[in-house]
Automatic annotation (TrEMBL):
<dbReference type="InterPro" id="IPR004095">
    <property type="entry name" value="TGS"/>
</dbReference>
<dbReference type="InterPro" id="IPR012676">
    <property type="entry name" value="TGS-like"/>
</dbReference>
<dbReference type="InterPro" id="IPR031662">
    <property type="entry name" value="GTP-binding_2"/>
</dbReference>
<dbReference type="InterPro" id="IPR006074">
    <property type="entry name" value="GTP1-OBG_CS"/>
</dbReference>
<dbReference type="GO" id="GO:1903833">
    <property type="term" value="P:positive regulation of cellular response to amino acid starvation"/>
</dbReference>
<dbReference type="InterPro" id="IPR006073">
    <property type="entry name" value="GTP-bd"/>
</dbReference>
<keyword id="KW-0547">Nucleotide-binding</keyword>
<keyword id="KW-0342">GTP-binding</keyword>
<feature type="domain" description="TGS">
    <location>
        <begin position="293"/>
        <end position="370"/>
    </location>
</feature>
<dbReference type="InterPro" id="IPR045001">
    <property type="entry name" value="DRG"/>
</dbReference>
<dbReference type="InterPro" id="IPR005225">
    <property type="entry name" value="Small_GTP-bd"/>
</dbReference>
<dbReference type="GO" id="GO:0003924">
    <property type="term" value="F:GTPase activity"/>
</dbReference>
<dbReference type="Pfam" id="PF01926">
    <property type="entry name" value="MMR_HSR1"/>
</dbReference>
<dbReference type="InterPro" id="IPR031167">
    <property type="entry name" value="G_OBG"/>
</dbReference>
<dbReference type="InterPro" id="IPR027417">
    <property type="entry name" value="P-loop_NTPase"/>
</dbReference>
<dbReference type="Pfam" id="PF16897">
    <property type="entry name" value="MMR_HSR1_Xtn"/>
</dbReference>
<dbReference type="InterPro" id="IPR012675">
    <property type="entry name" value="Beta-grasp_dom_sf"/>
</dbReference>
Amino acid sequence: MKIKEVEDEMARTQKNKATAYHLGQLRAKLAKLKRELITPSGGGGGGAGLGFDVARTGIASVGFVGFPSVGKSTLMSGLTGTTSEAAAYEFTTCTFMTPDAVTTVPGTMTVRGAKIQVLDLPGIIEGAKDGKGRGRQVIAVARTCNLIFIVLDVCKPLKDKQILEAELEGFGIRLNKRKPNVIVRKKDKGGLAITNTVPLTKLDHDEIRAVMSEYRISNADIAFREDITVDELIDVIENNRIYIPCIYVLNKIDSISIEELDLLYKIPQSVPISSRQWLNIDELIDKMWEELNLVRIYTKPRKSAPDYTAPVVLRRDKCTIEDFCNAIHREIFKQFKYAMVWGASAKHARGQRVGADHVLEDEDCVTIFKR
């Protein structure tokens, strides 16, 4: 059964108690077909990802996603000093390797001492998740980013936002969401055991069993710790979704009125800017720093003042003393004895002696003592 046939069947089927099982199977079947489409099996056709090998630099990466000529290249050039060809017509981000390929243009910017890689991805066209416009490779790079900027032209309808979200969703990218708190534990026998600690208002047991049947899971313990939809249950089973924070960059505000600008601020997770006039870029950078969730740690040599010029930047989910040592040099931790910490994570203003598992906070100062 093809994707269009499944979607048509779903559209024809009225949702009620009697059709819940059938609709659950159709949704699961649709998810499997889409997965096969975006991750084709087998060899042949080498070179599909031509021009998309990007060397990773910096502590985090931000991907610019958008339709052609919304101002991504101009914004990136201003932020990083990297020249990405810009023009007033579509598809100017290109490659010199083959005539039909487009490429990712990387650059680096420094924010509060942290080096952040910025990737100007080629303009996405509708149908990118289906391979149009080299869209499959473009979105594959987006999956590796720590943060996505969806760049939109404020002069065009905001349906562009919905189209881009659908393209990214179709490739397994979940924007501004977290992984559902659901556990599916397969077992050898005993059938399906479904438990929930919250009321399930968005799906029923028939839909759950239908999805499990489609994935040929007949014996499993399924524990729901939050109220989710059938699509989110499929995400849990597929287990290949990427959850990425996203900022909607509404570009070209220099061409609209103040009243229209006030309306734009009502869009969640959005920052209106003008890359051409360089308006409101500071707010965009502040929002980017907040979403990347980075921590700056300053080194403090013994009997000296802390070095505030070159912080060691860590990710908040990996910011222990051990992570700090490894970020400087792998050999340091092998000789680690203890550390002294000053700042928000220390219990005392005069400093605290801590071990390797101590979790650091932003702008802490650290002295390492070796054996």
